[in-house]
Task: inverse folding
């Protein structure tokens, strides 16, 4: 069975600090996808990134970066120079890549609070 | 933006009444999903559909039924609403790569 653990329930930082959100996963599949979603206070769920299990290259998008390490089954998300607008709940998710119903398993989310 | 809408966006109802939530997509995607989101539980899958008239249960399907008579519409019905079904309900579709999901704006349901 697939499992996603986001051990950090809530993180509080001051603006401009760097912050890393941890995501650890379990799967028996050799081919899978990992995702991050953002849920701001307004409530919508926004897709941020998808990473294929065969692609361990880290990705950077502006102030956001993602570190995928198969050896430790982790897919961590770092926000550099955090801003108040980054305040949100962030969800990590995992889904198998072959066959099936494409149902992802979500972590319980990490609430990030960025103080001015 | 993925073309997903949900209606109604907010609803207050009384225990024992039937409620139907609608999800509409303009993307012609095969897979559609209903989730509920509650504090401390994250997103939990209620039902999903893999085509017209093809549906299956998720982890919290008791008390819910679904129907999909057209590709673009996926209906969630609470046959007899209970206070424990007070929640925010999200509909989702899978993206073109059949993996990442795109979510509707959500429906906040309160059962009194």
Result:
């Amino acid at each position: 069975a697939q499992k996603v653990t986001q051990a950090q329930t809530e993180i509080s930082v001051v603006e401009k600090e760097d912050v890393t959100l941890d995501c650890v996963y379990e799967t028996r599949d050799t081919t899978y996808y990992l995702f991050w979603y953002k849920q701001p206070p307004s409530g919508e769920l926004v897709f941020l990134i998808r990473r294929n299990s065969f692609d361990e290259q880290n990705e950077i998008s502006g102030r956001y970066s993602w570190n995928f390490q198969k050896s430790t089954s982790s897919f961590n998300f770092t926000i550099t120079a955090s801003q108040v607008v980054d305040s949100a709940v962030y969800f990590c998710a995992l889904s198998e890549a072959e066959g099936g119903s494409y149902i992802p398993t979500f972590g319980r989310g990490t609430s990030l609070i960025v103080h001015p | 933006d993925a073309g997903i809408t949900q209606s109604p966006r907010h609803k207050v109802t009384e225990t024992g009444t039937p409620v139907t939530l609608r999800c509409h997509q303009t993307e012609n995607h095969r897979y559609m999903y209903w989730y509920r989101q509650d504090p401390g539980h994250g997103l939990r899958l209620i039902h999903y559909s893999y085509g017209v008239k093809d549906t299956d249960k998720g982890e919290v399907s008791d008390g819910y039924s679904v129907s999909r008579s057209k590709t673009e519409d996926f209906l969630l019905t609470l046959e007899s609403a209970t206070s424990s079904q007070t929640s925010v309900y999200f509909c989702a579709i899978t993206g073109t790569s059949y993996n990442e999901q795109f979510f509707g704006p959500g429906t906040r349901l309160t059962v009194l």
